[in-house]
Amino acid sequence: MRVLIVEDDFTSRKLLQKFLSPYGDCDIAVDGKEALEAYKMSWVKSEPYDLICMDIMMPNVDGQEALKKIREIEKDMGIKNHDEVKVVMTTVLDDPKNVFKALNKGGATSYIIKPISKQTLLEELRKLGLII
């Protein structure tokens, strides 16, 4: 499994990397702008990501905007919904407006509230069919 962790907080980045590295190769981006560059490069190298864990609140390009652009790139490439990269939005924001925006408008696959436990993250990946 190829994973892109998009997180501006160092501690959160390291924690997600620790949780996910036993299941695949993890790349890191510190904001949505870097995430978009990494996402595009993964396709140039013919090594697309299977999972993106992305924070919502980040500098430069936030997670909601980065997700929207990723879904636009996929649409332009002719990638169908069932073949889209799985995107788990991570945030401290636990309000219905952000959940709705990420899931329904942005096309996120799922949404996890911080602090993220290893058990919660792995359960979500199992639901998504990314791990057994």
Structural class designation: alpha/beta
For the largest beta-sheet, the strand count, sense and barrel status come to: 5 strands, parallel
Number of domains: 1
End-to-end Cα distance, whole Å, is 12 Å
Strand content: 15-25%
Shape: globular
What is the radius of gyration computed over CA atoms, rounded to a whole number of angstroms? 13 Å
Number of strands: 5
CATH fourth-tier homologous superfamily: Response regulator
Tally the helices: what do you get? 5
Mean pLDDT: 92
CATH architecture: 3-Layer(aba) Sandwich
CATH class value? Alpha Beta
Give the fraction of residues assigned to helices: 40-55%
> In CATH terms, what is the fold-level topology?
Rossmann fold
What's the layout of helices and strands?
Elements (H helix, E strand, L loop, with lengths): L1 E5 L3 H11 L4 E5 L2 H13 L6 E5 L7 H14 L9 E6 L4 H10 L4 E4 L4 H10 L5
Parallel strand pairs: 1-2, 1-3, 3-4, 4-5
Helix pairs in contact: 2-3
